[in-house]
Amino acid sequence: MAQSNRLREGTTSPTSSSAFREALRLAWPATLSMLLHAAYRVNDQFWIQDLGAPAQAAMGVTAFYLILNFGFINVVSAGALARIARFTGSGEVAKRDITFRTTMWVGLGWFLTVGALGWMASPWLVAAAGSQGEVATFANDYLSTIYLVLPLIALKPVVDVVFLGLGNTFLPMILAACAVGINFALNPILIYGWGPIPALGIAGAAWATGFSKGLSGGVGLWLLWRKWKMSPSRLGVGLHETKRIAAIGAPVGLFAGSYAIIFLILLKTSIEPLGQSVQAGLGVAFNGVESLAYCGLMGPATAASSMVGRALGAKQWHYARQAMRACWAMSALVAGVFTILFLTSSEWLSSLYTNDPAVQQEAARYLWIVAFGQVITATDAVMQQAMTGAGRTLKMSLLNTAGFAIRIPLAWALSGPLGWGAAGIWWALNIANTAKLAAMVALFRKMQIFRPHP
């Protein structure tokens, strides 16, 4: 019983049914939290539509820099999740608290540095993605502001992984719901102005994101102190913990960052030559629609990282395997639902974000094609999150980076020489994801993370 109590806030026994119950307990709030996270992009994409197609295209360009930023955040958050989950599972409260304090202080310095460098580099980053003219102006206004408020934006996901490591996904969901509500209310006010508040244009969307996430993260810190007596108020950075967090988190940051960088190369080499309608269609489909599918299937995958990490900390190897299977079943189910939705309703979904017929057509084309890769993405995500929870991230991240890289020549060949146009780029994503999953399955079996290690 002592071992079971360490695994989560309630009780957990090492059976298939209890694994499914805990997976469900963690997965539904995590799924809602992820969907609420996607709602920031949906909010922005919805509210800026009156600024025109160039603003929509700018959101498509900057979306991948936002993903790159989460790569930087993952350098801290992924390592913190694995370590806190492991110490929660083993019942080592003092070590857990050292990890927490180290995460918060090291993270603050890291995010301030990334934010400052990103703000200075924003014009170059926008140009590197292939943006020109009015699209570039909108993209720079938005992206430079995002970097100004990056420490506030980063606070929420870092606090979330602390809760996740503790086995609690409910409180992050509640905080996310409140933050998205604030964001939705602030967006039109800051974008278009209201009373004495001036219109900030597309930059207003970035300010709304920073304020709402920073407020939510601050409340999360207060809750961690009230319920678990975890506080970063006194400086307690552990050098060993800093190294361990970085060793686990840096590879995860690498593959998250490589995803964004490679997609930015695709924007420059394959998507930009096809024109503004394709850029804007990608922005609508990726930000406004597919992000919801990804966050939906990532909820159960995220639960897998917490369950596997705590089970391995408690040396319950068989339960860790059962947890992963239960989370995969849920993630695949969510992915299947979105597959059907994309295949049957892609045009209607695209029409929710734009009245431009050309943009609608390109967005619908993207959704119909990527529908065939949703279950593949779910399977890949659960395996990655299980390896992250186990703290085994290096080989997994290198494989992901290689899998992302093959998108570049595939997309160029299918869209250009073979004459498939934008459809060739989207089919290249499916082909590359399938190849990457096959290699990931082989790696996962070889790593044997569910067996005792000396």
What this model shows, in words?
The chain has 454 residues and is mostly helical. The chain is 83% helix and 0% strand. The chain contains 16 helices and no strands. The protein has helices at 2-7, 16-47, 53-90, 93-128, 133-148, 150-165, 170-192, 202-228, 239-271, 276-313, 317-351, 357-370, 374-389, 394-405, 407-415, 422-447.
What can be said about this structure in brief?
This protein has 454 residues and is mostly helical.
H/E element order: HHHHHHHHHHHHHHHH
Overall geometric form = globular
Q: Averaging pLDDT over every residue, what do you get? A: 89
Give Rg in angstroms: 21 Å
Structural class: mainly alpha
Number of strands: 0
The largest pleated sheet is described as: none
Low-confidence stretches: 1-13
Proportion of helical residues: over 70%
- DSSP strand (E) fraction? under 5%
Number of helices: 16
Distance between the termini: 25 Å
Task: Give short descriptive properties of this protein.
454 residues, globular, mainly alpha, 16 helices, disordered N terminus
Topology of this protein?
Blueprint: H1 2-7, H2 16-47, H3 53-90, H4 93-128, H5 133-148, H6 150-165, H7 170-192, H8 202-228, H9 239-271, H10 276-313, H11 317-351, H12 357-370, H13 374-389, H14 394-405, H15 407-415, H16 422-447
Helix pairs in contact: 2-7, 2-10, 2-11, 3-4, 3-5, 3-6, 3-9, 3-10, 4-5, 4-6, 4-9, 5-8, 6-8, 7-8, 9-14, 9-15, 10-11, 10-12, 10-13, 11-12, 11-13, 12-16, 13-16, 14-16, 15-16
